[in-house]
Amino acid sequence: MNILAFAEQRDNKFKKSSFETVKAARGIADQLGAECVALVIGSGVEGIAEILGGYGASRVVVVDDAKLAQHSNTAFAKVIAAVATKEGSQYVFLPASQMGKDLAPRVAVKLEAGLAADCVALKVEAGEIVATRPIYAGKALIDVRVKTASKVFTLRPNVFTAGAGQDGSAKVEKIGVVLDASDFGSTVKDVKVSAGRPDVTEADIIVSGGRGMKGPENFNLIESLADVLGAGVGASRAVVDAGWRPHDEQVGQTGKTVSPTMYVACGISGAVQHLAGMSSSKYIVAINKDKDAPIFQIADYGIVGDVFDVLPELTTQLKAALGK
Amino acid sequence: MNIVVCVNHVPDTEAKIKVASDNLSIDKAGVNFMLSPYDEIAIEEGLRMREKFKGEVVAITLGSDAHKETLRKALAMGVDKAVLLKDDGLRDSFGVAFGLAEEIKQRNPDVVLFGRQSIDYDDAQVGTLVAEMLGLPSVAVVVKLELQDGKAVCEREIEGGHEVVATTLPAVFLAQKGLNEPRYPSLKGIMAAKSKPIEEKSAAQSELRVETVQMRKPPAKGAGKILGTDKSAVPELIRLLHEEAKVI
Asked: What's the complex ipTM?
């Protein structure tokens, strides 16, 4: 019995969520008495595979093919399903990243498996995995059990802990999967990378601004603090709808659901749909001049004050404290 | 062009969610339901395709009679036909996808549109499940979409950037905010929608693959400390972040 853990790489570098997925797979595999096998797909990726041993993979299967240099959900899904079948994997784990969410449904259909998506906790009860997944943007949780023989799980990034990689001794096995033109239903032609800051779904720290910032020109205060902290920049729905910030920064039920270590909410009152998207942050800091703002009901640390007074001071003092 | 848009009827984003006494579903009392916001973007994209290439837009939903309200909204926005695949039971995402796929199969569409995710169960998987069940290519989280000569070039959001994805038609697309600005239904559209027929049929059944053991509220996060009312609170905040939270 084994768990096959798909480790996403881009530009031949693993995503942090891949390490989280492999490590979580190993934890569950130990409880089930199963083996943890990692899977890497791409072109020229054989050399990076071994480090997955440091996160708990006992073997790493590599499908290294020039045709797989760019992502194609149909071709990648075929490879994952083929490897899972060959390995007799009862479980397939993927990160619930954009790539993982693009692959898991296809893999599940091919393996006739049930799929539990975007899980935030996994435990083993009576030899079976019980997965917890947030619904209604985290306003509620469901605990689910997958009933099919093969089972597919995707794991929300930034929730499971990868820690630092140990010295691993995973055996790397290269295998081939035959792919023809018809397997490439859609193909990525180009990747446009946004400059600079981490995406809010991956960031350890998020500095987020709302209507209290009074206008797009004041978001430099948010960006300055974000840069001191190496943080991602987030925004409330109100400011995205007003066109102050791009929609890929929007946090909340109609934006992105985030789980950073720290979320700094600046001039955000905390509408229900915003709170739903960020309340699973480990620490929440709120700066808002309205003491009755709902954000203070979930904030660990609050300053009831003017963002234009507090924010620059926080940036200056953090810069000094962090030696930047 | 034959266009299908799959839509869902979900609690309003401002709704407070309570767990019903069965511990498996939500308490619907006092909750307003609406067309899932990303599905609205999908409808708009379908209407724009029809305006450009002619043809027909069919909205399909799977659920109880209450979903008719969402189909009326789709009709008011301008879709040509509305189909309700009736099912009052609980389904997993596979079951929803299966019901939709069985219906879509008979319609041979050129384009199938979904919202990026339905904002109730949030798993963002139904559209891609349907694509795989139908053997079609798919592009998820689409913020830009251009059709030409039986092909599509899209931009989709990924972490920290965009992917440019090319695909042939027929294909499934999952709409993300930013793809377009959905129109408001006109008064004429709203009036006309009231008298347009809704086709009803029972949804194809499949076995439950994922079973909900229980639904529950997340552990409540209590209010924390208020550290002050101006910038003089900053040193204390930094001390706590460093010593107590250990995040810096």
From this structure: 0.96
